[in-house]
C-alpha cells in the first residue's frame, strides 16, 4: 500500500494553522479534540437557575442590551424565556457584538450559571444567534487545542474540509487489527471528532474508549517503527572493530584500588561485546549518582586505545569535564596513555597544542566540553565517543562529534546519564538504543539521611554546620534556583556567603557560581577538595561531577524550587565517603502540593530509579529527554503512566513488522503519523 502524497489545507489561515504544526490534511484530521461541550440539550432559564454552579445551555430572546461603565466598561445583555430572565455579562467585547445581540434577537448561550448581586448571570458565555426552532446538534461539540488568531469555528471548518479530502485507507492489515482487538481507523477518527450524544462520556474524557485506544496505539507504533528503523539503518553503517582487550585494559584493571561491582562487570561485558561489532554501538549507560559509570567508560576507552584507535569524552560543563580529566588521567597517564584536555576557556596557544595532539593521533584519549565538536578539532582515528549527561546536549551536538570518524567509519557511541530513566520512558523514547544499567552502589558508601526543615529554623541549621566542621567534616550550602534571573541567583549566593562568613568566623567559607571564570572556579574547588575551605556556598554548578569524600553535610535552600532529579543529583555530592551523611532541605512554607510531594519523596528514598519513576508521574516525560527530542513533539495521545501495556504491544508489533520486512505497511503508517518529522527520532 504505497503512501499517498499528503495534501495541504487551503491557503486561508494557512500560516496560523502551520504554527500549530497543521500543514497537511492528515495533520488536521489527527488534530483531535482536547475536550467536548454538550450543546445537544437546552434547559429553561428557571431550571438553569436551580442548577446554579453547573454548566447549562439556555435559549431566550434579548430584552435589554446596554453598555455599563461601572465598575468598568462592560456589555450587559438580558435574555428571557417563558420561565424567567438571565443576565449575560461580557467584560471584553467588540462593537459588532453590541449590534449582533440587539433587542429582539434569539440567542442560545452556554456557560456556568452564577448568582450575582443583581440575580442570575452568565459571565462570557459561548453563544449563537439563532432562528426560532433551530435544531439542536445531535453530537457533542469538539473543542480543539488552538493558537493565536485561530477560533474554534476555523479549526472545526478546516478539519471537516480535510476529512472530505484524505485517503481513509487503514494502514494496519485486517489480521493485525483483529489480533490486537483494535477498532478501524476511519470510524475511530470520525467518532472522536463527532461523538454521538449517547456515548460513554467517562471513557471519552479518560481516553479509554476503543477509538482513543486505536489512536494511542497508532501513535506509539509510529514512534517505535521509526526508532527501530533508525536502529536498523545504523547497523548497515561501518564502524571500527575494537577487538583488542590488551595490555592497557589489563593493567588498568590491575591498578584500580577497588574491585568492580557485579553490576559494573555485567555492563562492561555488554559494552565490550558491542565494541567488537563492525557496526556502531549506540548504548545508553545509566546508573545512579556514585554507581561508578566513570570507571566503566574509562575501561571502554582503554579497549579503543588497545585496538589502535582514539577515544573522546565530552561533558556538558567545565567542572564535570575537569573532574573526569583528573580522575581518568590519574588512572591512564601512569600507564603511558597520552590524555588531552580541550575546553573553550583554554588560551589560544594551549588550544592549538591540544588540537595538534588530537590531529596527529598522539593524544589517545581526549576529554573536554563542547570545544571537542568545533570544526578546528580533527581526530586522526576516532573509534569511541563517550557523552556524559547526554540529555544536556542537543541532537546536533552529539551528531557532530559522531561525524568526526575517519575512513567512512562511524565511531561507537556510549552515552551516560546519572538521571535514571524509568523503564516505560526508555522503552518509548530510547527504543533505538541498547540500555545498560548499573543498579548497584559500590561497597563502603554511607547512607544519606534526608530531612526537610522550615526556613524559620535556619539558626539551628547553621549551628549544625558549625558542629560538623569542628568534627573535621565539610559542608555544601546550595543556593536557590532562580530561573528568571542569573543575576538574582548570583546576588542570593553572594549574600548567603556573606551571612555564613559572619555567622561562622572561625571557618573558611568559599563561594562558587556560574559567573566565575573557569580558573577561579577551579581554584575554589581545589581549596574545598584540600579541606582549606570547610563550607562551600554554591549555585547548581556543583550538581554533577564534584567528588569530595570528606563532604558529608549538604544544605539546600528553598528546596521547594528544585525538581526531583536535580535535588537527587545535588544530594549525590555527599555520602561519597565512609562518614554518615545528611542532606537538609530548607523550605519556605506554605508548600504547594507538588513541592510537598517532591520533598516527601526525597525523605522516603535514595533510590534514583524510584525517584525517576515518581518524577515522571509529577512532571511528565519532557525534562527527562532533554534536547534529544529537539523539534519532536511529545506523545500527544498516549500517556506513559496509564498506557504502559500499549507501549509494550506497539514495541512488539513494530519489531515484528520490521523483522518480517512488511515495508508497505511500515511506510504507509509512518507517512500518516510522522510525515516529515521522522528525522528527529534518529539520533
From TrEMBL:
A biological process from GO: DNA recombination
Residue ranges constituting the Helicase ATP-binding domain according to the UniProt record: 274-438
InterPro entries on file: ATP-dep_DNA_helicase_RecG, DEAD/DEAH_box_helicase_dom, Helicase_ATP-bd, Helicase_C-like, NA-bd_OB-fold, P-loop_NTPase, RecG/Mfd, RecG_dom3_C
Catalytic activity: ATP + H2O = ADP + phosphate + H(+); Couples ATP hydrolysis with the unwinding of duplex DNA by translocating in the 3'-5' direction
EC numbers, comma separated: 5.6.2.4
UniProt entry keywords in alphabetical sequence: ATP-binding, DNA damage, DNA recombination, DNA repair, DNA-binding, Helicase, Hydrolase, Isomerase, Nucleotide-binding
Top-level taxon of the source organism: Bacteria
Pfam families registered for this protein in UniProt: DEAD, Helicase_C, RecG_dom3_C, RecG_wedge
CDD domains (UniProt xref): DEXHc_RecG (cd17992), RecG_wedge_OBF (cd04488), SF2_C_RecG (cd18811)
Summary of the function given for this chain in its UniProt record: Plays a critical role in recombination and DNA repair. Helps process Holliday junction intermediates to mature products by catalyzing branch migration. Has replication fork regression activity, unwinds stalled or blocked replication forks to make a HJ that can be resolved. Has a DNA unwinding activity characteristic of a DNA helicase with 3'-5' polarity.
Family: Belongs to the helicase family. RecG subfamily.
NCBIfam families per UniProt: PRK10917.1-1 (NF008163), PRK10917.1-3 (NF008165), PRK10917.1-4 (NF008166), PRK10917.2-2 (NF008168), recG (TIGR00643)
Protein name: ATP-dependent DNA helicase RecG
Taxonomy of the source species: Bacteria, Pseudomonadati, Pseudomonadota, Betaproteobacteria, Burkholderiales
Amino acid at each position: 500500500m504505497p503512501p499517498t502524497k499528503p495534501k495541504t489545507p487551503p491557503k486561508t489561515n494557512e500560516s496560523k494553522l502551520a504554527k500549530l504544526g497543521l500543514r497537511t490534511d492528515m495533520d488536521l484530521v489527527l488534530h483531535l479534540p482536547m475536550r467536548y461541550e454538550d450543546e445537544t440539550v437546552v434547559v429553561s432559564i428557571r431550571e438553569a437557575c436551580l442548577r446554579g454552579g453547573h454548566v447549562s445551555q439556555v435559549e431566550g430572546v434579548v430584552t435589554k442590551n446596554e453598555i455599563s461603565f461601572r465598575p468598568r466598561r462592560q456589555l450587559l445583555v438580558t435574555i428571557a424565556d417563558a420561565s424567567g430572565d438571565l443576565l449575560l455579562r461580557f467584560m471584553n467585547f467588540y462593537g459588532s457584538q453590541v449590534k449582533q445581540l440587539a433587542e429582539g434577537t434569539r440567542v442560545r448561550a452556554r456557560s456556568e450559571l452564577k448568582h450575582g448581586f443583581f440575580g442570575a448571570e452568565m459571565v462570557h458565555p459561548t453563544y449563537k444567534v439563532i432562528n426560532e426552532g433551530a435544531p439542536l446538534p445531535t453530537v457533542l461539540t469538539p473543542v480543539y487545542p488552538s493558537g493565536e488568531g485561530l477560533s474554534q469555528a476555523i479549526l472545526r471548518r478546516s478539519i471537516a474540509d480535510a476529512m472530505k479530502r484524505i485517503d481513509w485507507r487503514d494502514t494496519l492489515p485486517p489480521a493485525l487489527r483483529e489480533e490486537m482487538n483494535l477498532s478501524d481507523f476511519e470510524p475511530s477518527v470520525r467518532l472522536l471528532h463527532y461523538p454521538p450524544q449517547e456515548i460513554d462520556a467517562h471513557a471519552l474524557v479518560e481516553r479509554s474508549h476503543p477509538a482513543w485506544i486505536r489512536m494511542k496505539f497508532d501513535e506509539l507504533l509510529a514512534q517505535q517503527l521509526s526508532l527501530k528503523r533508525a536502529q536498523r539503518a545504523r547497523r548497515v553503517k561501518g564502524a571500527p572493530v575494537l577487538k583488542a582487550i590488551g595490555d592497557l585494559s589489563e593493567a588498568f584493571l590491575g591498578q584500580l584500588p577497588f574491585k568492580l561491582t557485579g553490576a559494573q562487570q555485567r555492563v562492561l561485558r555488554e559494552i565490550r561485546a558491542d565494541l567488537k561489532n563492525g557496526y556502531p554501538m549506540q548504548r545508553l549507560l545509566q546508573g545512579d549518582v556514585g554507581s561508578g559509570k566513570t570507571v566503566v567508560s574509562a575501561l571502554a576507552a582503554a579497549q579503543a586505545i588497545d585496538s589502535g584507535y582514539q577515544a573522546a569524552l565530552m561533558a556538558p560543563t567545565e567542572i564535570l569535564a575537569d573532574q573526569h580529566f583528573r580522575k581518568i588521567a590519574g588512572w591512564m597517564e601512569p600507564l603511558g596513555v597520552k590524555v588531552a584536555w580541550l575546553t573553550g576557556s583554554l588560551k589560544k596557544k594551549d588550544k592549538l597544542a591540544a588540537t595538534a595532539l588530537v590531529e596527529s593521533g598522539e593524544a589517545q584519549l581526549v576529554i573536554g566540553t563542547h570545544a571537542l565538536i568545533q570544526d578546528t578539532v580533527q581526530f586522526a582515528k576516532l573509534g569511541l565517543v563517550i557523552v556524559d549527561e547526554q540529555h544536556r546536549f542537543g541532537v546536533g551536538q552529539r551528531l557532530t562529534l559522531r561525524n568526526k570518524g575517519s575512513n567512512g567509519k562511524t565511531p561507537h557511541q556510549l552515552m551516560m546519564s546519572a538521571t535514571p530513566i524509568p523503564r516505560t520512558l526508555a522503552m518509548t523514547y530510547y527504543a533505538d538504543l541498547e540500555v545498560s544499567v548499573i543498579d548497584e552502589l559500590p561497597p563502603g558508601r554511607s547512607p544519606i539521611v534526608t530531612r526537610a526543615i522550615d526556613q524559620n529554623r535556619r539558626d539551628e541549621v547553621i549551628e549544625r554546620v558549625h558542629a560538623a566542621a569542628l568534627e573535621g567534616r565539610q559542608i555544601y550550602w546550595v543556593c536557590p534556583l532562580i530561573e528568571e534571573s542569573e543575576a538574582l541567583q548570583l546576588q542570593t549566593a553572594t549574600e548567603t556567603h556573606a551571612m555564613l562568613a559572619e555567622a561562622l568566623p572561625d571557618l573558611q567559607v568559599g563561594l562558587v557560581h556560574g559567573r566565575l571564570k573557569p580558573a577561579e572556579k577551579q581554584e575554589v574547588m581545589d581549596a574545598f577538595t584540600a579541606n582549606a575551605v570547610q563550607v562551600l556556598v554554591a549555585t547548581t554548578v556543583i550538581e554533577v561531577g564534584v567528588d569530595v569524600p570528606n563532604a558529608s553535610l549538604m544544605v539546600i535552600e528553598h528546596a521547594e524550587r528544585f525538581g526531583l532529579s536535580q535535588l537527587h543529583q545535588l544530594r549525590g555530592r555527599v555520602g561519597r565517603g565512609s562518614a554518615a551523611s545528611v542532606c537538609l532541605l530548607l523550605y519556605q512554607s506554605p508548600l504547594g502540593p507538588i513541592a510537598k510531594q517532591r520533598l516527601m519523596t526525597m525523605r522516603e528514598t535514595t533510590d534514583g530509579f524510584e525517584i525517576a519513576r515518581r518524577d515522571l508521574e509529577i512532571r511528565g516525560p519532557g525534562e527527562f529527554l532533554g534536547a534529544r527530542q529537539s523539534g519532536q513533539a511529545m506523545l500527544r495521545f498516549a500517556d506513559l503512566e496509564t498506557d504502559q501495556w500499549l507501549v509494550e504491544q506497539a514495541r512488539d508489533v513494530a519489531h515484528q513488522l520490521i523483522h518480517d520486512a512488511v515495508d508497505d505497511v511500515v511506510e504507509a503508517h509512518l507517512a500518516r503519523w510522522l510525515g516529515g518529522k521522522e528525522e528527529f527520532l534518529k539520533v
